[in-house]
Amino acid sequence: MHKNLQTAFSQRQHMLSGDFEIYYYSDSHSYYVTSHTHGHFEFYFFLEGNVSIHIDGTEYLLQYGDMILIPPGIAHFATLLGREAPYRRFVFWVSQEYCRSLFSVSPDYLYLMKLASETGEYIFHYDEIAFQALQAKIFQLIEEIHSQRFGRNAKITLCANDLILHLNRTVYEARHPKTAHEEQSLYLNLLQYIETHLNEALSLEQLAKEFYVSKYHIAHVFKNSLGISIHQFIMKKRLSASRDAILSHTPIGDACLMCGFQDYSSFFRAFKKEFGLSPKEYREIYMREDCCRGR
Fold first, then answer.
1. N or C: which end of the chain has fewer CB within 10 A?
2. In the chain, at which residue ranges do the beta strands (DSSP E only) sit?
3. pLDDT in tens, 184-203
């Protein structure tokens, strides 16, 4: 996976950049690295291998999904315990100077750094879905570093800052779960937003950006509140709106588009599955019944 983005391992423990550096390592043999400290923050994302890490005198056996944050001045080293699988990880270094510049923008960027430095809590675990989302952000940053595209430097900074903020947000939200009132408020706001934006793209990703929460949280809140997925709800609302439009003498093709369907064939199939009739058949039956009532 992304082998072209891997970095040859170096035992260098100091930064060459004044801001941040990121590496993707995959090794089939061990390198002897003694206990050491850094003058920068080190984020370490464990992917694969039989590895333990020693931090400030305590040994931790690592598992997929572990994110380790080691503050400046904290002694640490990793030990390869076996060679059954490659030793794969990301390493992300962030200088103290860069952290201070981010803090001047928002203290939220340094929530995690402060937590690790003040409490001695260094290991944070992500479930599989959340860790895959995190890896996507990491690869986006690494791919941009390897690219030669227009705006590369600006994009690299944006990706790095987004990654740092994402790490802070996910750990903060895990420690500050939403209250029942907050979740109900989010649910009601989602209902209102969907109702008034049926003709627009309503993907989980787009809703997450609109409400500043993760798409996984939105999906969880919605399923708990209504018992069906948000995708199912949006589909039912669009079909109901298109039916009402058709019965109000809106041309069927126009009703399809104005209710957010991207193509007629998918609309036709969904409509027939929901109501048991094609849009044209549904309209004709309604018109006959209307005529009979008018006699």
1. C
2. 20-27, 41-48, 50-55, 58-61, 66-70, 76-82, 87-94, 123-125
3. 888 899 999 998 999 888 88
